[in-house]
Amino acid sequence: MAIGVAAALAALAALVALPLHAQVEPVMLRIGHAAPTSGWLARVGIENENAARLAVQELNRRGLQLYGQPVAFELISVDDAGEPTRARAAAQALVAAGVVAVVGHLLSASSMAAAPVYAAAGIPQVSPSASISAFTHSGWPTAFRMLADDARMAAVLAHHAVGMLQLRRVAVVDDRSDWGRSIADAFAQALQGAGAQVVGRRQLQASSAAARLALVRELQALAPDALFFGGFDREAGPLLRQMRRQGLDARFIVGDGACTPDLVSYWAVGEAADDQVLCPLPAGVQGLDTPAMAGFVVAYQAQFGNLVPEFYGAYAYDAVMVLADALLRAGSAAPEELLRALAQTRGYPGVTGTIGFDERGDRVAPAVSLFTYRDEQRVLLRTLR
What DSSP character marks residue 367? Predict the structure, then answer.
C-alpha cells in the first residue's frame, strides 16, 4: 500500500512538473537585421549590426515576459551588400526565418527595394538610416524610420545656408541615384523657399575625373556662392578636390551620406579649406551630449574592443529597443498587433532622444546636427529640432 501511494505521488509530481517546466521555457523572438557587412559600406553596416546585437543582449538581461512567459530575443543578421537586388533577397530570407520585425536596411535604395517584401508579410521594418522621403510616403504600412528624412535635413541645411552663411546663389548637383536626386531636389526647394536662387540644377554624369572636370567648368560660368552635392563621400570628396584645382571658390554643401569622417581627411585630403563644407547628420551620430548617449558609447566600446560608434549605430540600437517596447505593449508578437503598438509609440526615451512616430511612420520632431570641417576633422556647429 505504501509503495502504491509513493508511486502515485511520484506520478502526480511528474504531471505537475510538466506545465511548470513549460512555463519557464522562453518564447524565442527573432528580430532581423539587414545591412551591408561586406563591400565599401561594411564599416557602417557592421556598426549597425553590432549596435543591434548590443540591444538584444541588454533585452535578454532584463528577464522580460510575454504571454506570461519569459522571452528571449535573437538577432538574425543578413548582408545585403548595399545593393537593391541583394536587399530583396535578404528581406525574403528574413521573412522565411520567421522574424517578427526587421531593423534595416542601411541605404535608402536597399530599404525601398526590401519594403514591399516586408509589407506583403505584414512585418514591421524600422530603418535606422534611410532618409529618402519616399520610404515612408509610398503607402507601406510596415515602414518606419528612426531619423529625419531628406526634406527635414534639407530644410535645416537651407535655413543655415541662407540665414547664417548669407548664401544667395547655389548650384545643385546629384549623383544620379534615387537618394541623391531626392535630397538634391529637397534642398533646391528649401533653398528657394528661404529666398536664395538655384543657379543651376545638374547631375554628375559619370564617376570619373573627366566628368567631374566637365561639371566644375560648367558650374564656374554660373558663379555660384555654393555647390550642393547629393551623393556619397567617395564621389563628393573628388568633386571637392576638382573644385579646388579649378579655382571654383565656393562653399560645398552635402547631404548626410557624404557627411563622414573620411570626406575631407581621406577623399579630399589637403583640398578643403576650413569651414568650406557644410553637412547634416541625424543628431546622435555625433554631437548629442546626453547621459544616455554616453552610456551607449561606453557599452558599445566595452563589447566591441574600444571601437567608437561614429555612424548610425545608436539608431540601430534604438530601433531594436523600440520594437521590443512595442512587443511588450502589444502583449503579442502577432504582426498586426505589433504594427499597431509600434505606430502608437510616443515618448519612448531612446539614446538618440525621445522617440515617437507620426501617421506615416516618420519620427516625430527628429533632431538634426550641422557640421563643418576644420583641420580635416568633422566639427559640430549646432543641433536643431
Answer: -
What is the H or E stretch that residue 243 is in?
Answer: helix 233-246
Full-prediction pTM beyond 0.70?
A: yes
Summary count for the chain: helices (H), strands (E): 13, 15
Task: Give the single-character DSSP code of 148.
Answer: -
**β partners of residue 368:** 282, 384
Question: Is the domain of 258 the same as that of 318?
Answer: no
Q: Is residue 291 part of a domain?
A: yes
* Other beta carbons within 10 Å of 223: 12
Query: DSSP 3-state assignment of 62?
Result: coil
Cell of 64: 522580460
- Residue 385: how many CB atoms within 10 A of its CB? 11
Rg (CA), the chain: 24
| Residue span of the structural domain in which 165 resides | 151-281+369-384
Other C-beta atoms closer than 10 Å to the C-beta of 373 total 24
Express each pLDDT in 317-344 by its tens digit.
Answer: 999 999 999 999 999 999 999 999 999 9
Confidence band for 286, pLDDT divided at 50, 70 and 90: low
